[in-house]
Amino acid sequence: MLDVFFFYAFAALVLGGALLTVTLRNTVHCAISLIASLSGVAGIFLLQKAEFLFAVQIIVYVGGVMVLFLFVIMLVNLDTAARDRQFNRQWIAAVACVLAIGAEGVYFVRSGSGAWTFAAPSEFALSAGNTEDIARMLFSEYLVPFEIASVLLLVAVVGSVLMARREA
Amino acid sequence: MAPITTGHYLGLSAALLLIGVAGVLTRRSIVVVLMSIELILNAVNINLIAFSSNSQNVRGQIFAMFIIADAVAEAAVGLGILIALFRNKDTVLADEVDLLKW
Amino acid sequence: MVSALDQLWMIPLFPLVGAAEALLMAIFARGRWKRAVSVFCPGMVLLSFVWSAAAVMTLSHEPARVHQVILASWLPPMGAEWGIYLDPLSAVMILIVTGIGFLIHLYSVGYMAHESGYARYFGCLNLFVFFMLVLVLANNYALLFAGWEGVGLCSYLLIGFFYRKHAAAAAGMKAFIVNRVGDAGLLLAIFMLFATFGTIRFADIVNVPAGGVTVLALLLFAGAAGKSAQVPLHVWLPDAMEGPTPVSALIHAATMVTAGVYLIARSSAIFGVSPEASALVAAVGAFTAIFAAMIALVQNDIKKVLAYSTISQLGYMFLALGTGAWWVAIFHLFTHAFFKALLFLGAGSVIHALDGEQDLRRMGGLKKTLTITHATMFIAAVAISGIPGLAGFFSKDAILSEAFRAGSTALYVVGLVTAGLTAFYMWRLMHLAFYGKKSVPIHAHEGPWTMRVPLIALAAGSSLAGWIGVPEQWHTPALFRAFPLWIAPVFHQALREPAGDPRMEWILMGASAAVALVGVTLARYFYHHRPAMPGSFEQSLRPLHGILLNKWYVDEFYERVFVSGLAKGGGRLLSRFDTGVVDGGVNGTAWLTRLSGRISKWWDEWVLDGGITLGAYFVKLLSYPVRVLQNGHLQSYALVFAMGMVALFSVYVFSR
Question: Which residues in chain C touch residue B101, judged by CB atoms under 8 angstroms apart?
């Protein structure tokens, strides 16, 4: 039962934070809502016994990405923008579009339910050491993608420095 | 209350995705558009984790890690572009930039 | 166990590594750590030499005496691949390139010690060795061409080594451009080879049907003549003496210029069945030999004398190739590599001692101060003159007797005269530089040991190299015939006259030795006993002397015809054509145009413009929806994307 409670609590945090992120006027507030939402996602990870990803989510997003966002928000003058219109002219069409996609998704699930079943919660049990499992797989089977990911990060860092530096 | 199944997680993921897409499509501020992209990527992660635990397999978690790495790279580059844009065009609003015509 | 034969690719790899190291040093170290370069680069060439020697030893024990290693495919339909081909011919070539190359590297350590660009120099030199090895080890014409262009590039880089000096930079460009003419021929030849035989692998082009390959052979010869400085493409080589002297020794005497000889020897299957092309090769070779030797008689720059001597000796090699005496040509190439490298290095030693003085007229009496240089140069001069016993005698005599046996008295006489001229100009050089009584700067000195050792080693080679190819009629043990026995089976076996009357051979040999001695004696008489005589000859033969001093005015001819004639003169002609014909036509046309313009203006304004405006209006109307879509806003595009998703899903929803 506690499971169910936590799921709805975290889901509310995730969706509420996300809604606030896309609606609030002040960008700093948006960022804080985003932190809330991403923390909720971290909680969802924890519920699914993905402890390692939980830690990664907290450290990387809340610790890293959010700080980056806040820096940029302060670097770029957003005061005038905050007083401005927040949504572009196509917002009605966009929201309609999104709702249509959602509705169609619901329709698909409805019409296709019964095609699959999901395991009951009691069976959610990965082996004890989640971090160990990940490490073993990451450094054996996924070693090459892992290294490629590190190159990707390096390229991203170099690229962003190059773009953000004051032009000569 | 009904027990929580993988289906619940997938529903949550879908809702988060739709909110993210709505944010990308409607917000004028590029910073918020980038945040919405983070939301979309997190929706994907929830999906992966749900299937990972459903199939008793940590591969999904590995993929989620790669997506996190990807999201970080994307945020870094995106914000770099944003700063370059702000410096050159003096705006951070997506609909004041129409460079995709050329 | 690692077999040197299977790892043949190591041979070119060593100098490539050396080149990479030295060029990196040149870029990053900026003149520091010279010692690392001066140990590493010669060391790499030495390793390559050792490896080559080991591979050749192993090859000599194999029955087939051919070894091929294919590293990777390149242009499969042409039979072009990254393949290494070691047979007796390429074995001789790699030993020359790496052996002499190493000695010259060693010499350069001393010679270039005080020049800037030390690492760059060694990088280019090692790179040159690498490309030369690619050239001679290639198993097909395409890879050979790659090496061919590579050595051309290195030659350009090294001729223009002192690039701040205008003459050096210009000489580099001249070498490059003149070589292009020949290279174009070679490239066409490769295409034609593929068209004719469907392959460009050496090993596949052996049995060529007679007839129909003359054009091909001539194109190949054009390439060879460019690289080996045969008339009329010889003009670049004397200018190439602007490069550092060891470069002249390595590239423009011992190795690169012999690439043309190698190419024709390698294509012996083609030349062997084309008597016309062979005759032309022989004729050009003979003409080049005597033509260059005559120029060498009067040059006053020590390196220019040697440069024309090189052209003349290359002419000898082509003469041998043209008469079908393939092995003799390669034999002369082999002996020539020793004594010509030695001559150049000796000249370098003289120049080094005199702080860059190259004019023979200002030298003299160096015998006392430069004892080792003098002794080794003496050996080289004896060798090149064809005095019996040293290297040059055997190979030159073999060429002359082959020319005689081929039945062409003219070729033989030209060769004999050239031999006499060679002896004469060589000893003129020796007398002017070493024996005269002119005052010598006090500080003239021998170079360091790195310069002396190569001189001595090459002197040993110059004296002994000929003894592995002594004439048949000497009836010596097989060891003394090792060279022809080793290499002759490689070549196309042309139908040849059996060896003539032994007595005739002895007479020929006596004649060539006598001519050489006459040349030497005359030079001694002129420049030692009667030092005034050359001057008076110059006076009485002023026109001829002038012609020779100006190298037959070939450069001036090219300047007039190709540079000014075609480029500038052509421009002048075009300009006259322009003002007269084209401008008149243009003016007349302009008048007509203006008339018709008036008419069409009216038509335009009232008929066409109206139509166009109407059409434009329609287009604008039609374009409106597209224009709205194509607004350049990121999010609009994203919205279209999302709408597409909705539409796609809707297809599924409504199709159920």
Answer: 630-632
Backbone CA torsion sign across C419, C424, C429, C431: positive
* One-letter amino acid of C168: A
Distance between the two ends of chain B, CA-based, in angstroms?
A: 56
The answer to whether A57 contacts chain B (CB < 8 Å) is: yes
Q: Which domain holds residue C571?
A: 555-619
Nearest-Cα distance to chain B for A144, in Å, is 12
Least confident of C214-218, C288-292, C442-446: C442-446
By C-alpha distance, which of C286, C441, C424, C293 is closest to C363?
Answer: C441
- Are residues C587 and C523 part of one domain? no
Read off the pLDDT of residues C45-56 as tens digits, 9 standing for 90 and up: 999 999 999 988
**Residue C201 φ then ψ, to 5°:** -80, 135
Task: Examine residue A93 and state whether it is found in any structural domain, yes or no.
Answer: no
Single-letter amino acid code for the residue at C540:
S
pLDDT in tens, A21-68: 999 888 888 889 999 999 999 999 988 888 888 999 999 888 888 888
- Structure letter (DSSP) for residue C73: E
CA distance C206 to C197: 10
Q: Using CA atoms, how far apart are residues A154 and A136, in angstroms rounded to an integer? A: 24
Degrees, nearest 5: CA angle A134-A136-A141: 100
Closest CA to C420 of C294, C508, C334, C302: C294
Which pLDDT does position B14 carry in this prediction?
A: 92
CA nearest neighbour of C133 among C7, C15, C265, C254: C15
Determine the Cα–Cα distance for residues C648 and C636; give it in Å rounded to an integer.
Answer: 18
Q: Answer whether B1 touches C (CB < 8 Å).
A: no
Chain B residues in contact with C635 (beta carbon < 8 A): 24-26, 33, 94-95
On whether both A1 and A74 belong to a single domain, the answer is: yes
Question: In a mutagenesis test of the C interface, which of B82, B101, B102 is the best target, namely the one with the most C β-carbons within 10 Å?
Answer: B101
Question: Is it the case that residue C541 has pLDDT exceeding 90?
Answer: no
> Which of C636, C649, C656 shows the shortest C-beta gap to A101?
C649
Q: Which of B23, B49, B56 sits opposite A21 (nearest CB)?
A: B23
Are C22 and C106 in contact, with CB atoms under 8 Å apart? no
> Can you tell me the mean pLDDT for C400-412?
83
The reply to whether A135 and A81 lie within a common domain is no
Which pLDDT tens digit goes with each residue over C484-539? Answer: 888 888 887 654 555 567 777 788 888 888 888 888 888 888 877 777 777 777 77
The residues on A that touch C, with CB distances below 8 Å, are 88, 90, 93-94, 97-98, 100-101, 104-105, 107-108, 111
Q: Could you say which residues from 34 to 93 on chain B have a Cβ atom under 8 Å away from some Cβ of chain C?
A: none
- Out of A85, A111, A143, a domain closes at A85
Identify which has the larger pLDDT, A168 or C65.
Answer: C65
CATH level 3 topology of B7-93: Helix Hairpins (1.10.287)
Q: Does one domain contain both C294 and C399?
A: yes
CB pairs under 8 A between B and C: 29
Distance CA C110, CA C124 (A): 17
Tell me what ipTM this predicted complex has. Answer: 0.90
